[in-house]
Amino acid sequence: xxxxxxxxxxxxxxxxxxxxxxxxxxxxxxxxxxxxxxxxxxxxxxxxxxxxxxxxxxxxxxxxxxxxxxxxxxxxxxxxxxxxxxxxxxxxxxxxxxxxxxxxxxxxxxxxxxxxxxxxxxxxxxxxxxxxxxxxxxxxxxxxxxxxxxxxxxxxxxxxxxxxxxxxxxxxxxxxxxxxxxxxxxxxxxxxxxxxxxxxxxxxxxxxxxxxxxxxxxxxxxxxxxxxxxxxxxxxxxxxxxxxxxxxxxxxxxxxxxxxxxxxxxxxxxxxxxxxxxxxxxxxxxxxxxxxxxxxxxxxxxxxxxxxxxxxxxxxxxxxxxxxxxxxxxxxxxxxxxxxxxxxxxxxxxxxxxxxxxxxxxxxxxxxxxxxxxxxxxxxxxxxxxxxxxxxxxxxxxxxxxxxxxxxxxxx
Length: 412
Known about the structure:
By secondary structure, this protein is an alpha+beta fold. Helices cover 31% and strands 21% of the residues. It has helices at 56-69, 86-100, 119-127, 195-209, 247-257, 274-285, 301-316, 350-355, 366-379, 388-392, 396-407, and strands at 46-55, 74-79, 104-110, 131-135, 155-158, 162-166, 187-192, 232-238, 262-267, 289-295, 320-324, 332-336, 340-344, 359-364, 384-386.
């Protein structure tokens, strides 16, 4: 009998084995009994973390800029949209100042999301020693080029000690009205603790696979004798590999199926597949208060049309749909039963599910969940309800556009 051939482990080209990212250790954490039902797996949860919820650009940008300006060793910055506007200039100046001070600054931006970013603007950063990578550049002649494969993540890691993630890109759209921005509504978070190294590894993996110069992570500090100062238990969901593609969807399905009281979702591009729609409808039928806030005016019109068709079906099944007025609502958050919450870049659309690199953190902490609930409850009064009656009152041509856009949802 011939022995089966062992498959060679595929290594990143040009990267020494000793410098490769070791996967996060799949160490199981014994979660408190009241929280165990929210964890689809016991592995890779990081206890003792500290999570601060940040709302909109007015809170997020100052916190990120303060962290950048305080960097001593390294800055790892990854974003989908990087614009050469007033907001982008603020970040460029902060990154440039730290690069001049000898801090290792690495920047990844997406070629499609940041389309039109001037070469001269980036050249100023490169001239100061900032390492810049254009993720999946638009070069149709490249072998295996796929235009839809995008880096939709928003990650900032400073000194491997503090990190930020969520939904905000770097552009005037997300800046507050007081700072001359458009005042888009979005949510972000600042994290400290063991989860920071998971985000650092995620960035490094993308950096190396995109051709970046190899580097090593900072040595992890020794564990303090006293108990960790943070009370949050956090888990990073990574969809980099083929096996992890559906990890975020599975996490959402798990908590929705185990919800007993409330499911609160804010999502910018809400086109859930049939399985997610079924889980939400079943939760509503068993008495769970399911509420979803979506944009009233979407910056992607086809998504807005398709949402009209999807949301009226959910409303008919007992899910309360609320449409955010005014500037674009770009948040991607969820809270279940006031204990489990998530903040990240993941949308309920085909791009996030099949194509984009995304980042989401699951958080088990009543205080963080409570803050997100307060934010949701503060947003709800300004929203307009949407239900079957409103759908039926739409003119026929609007219904036709909505139906057609829904049929094209695989490409949105």
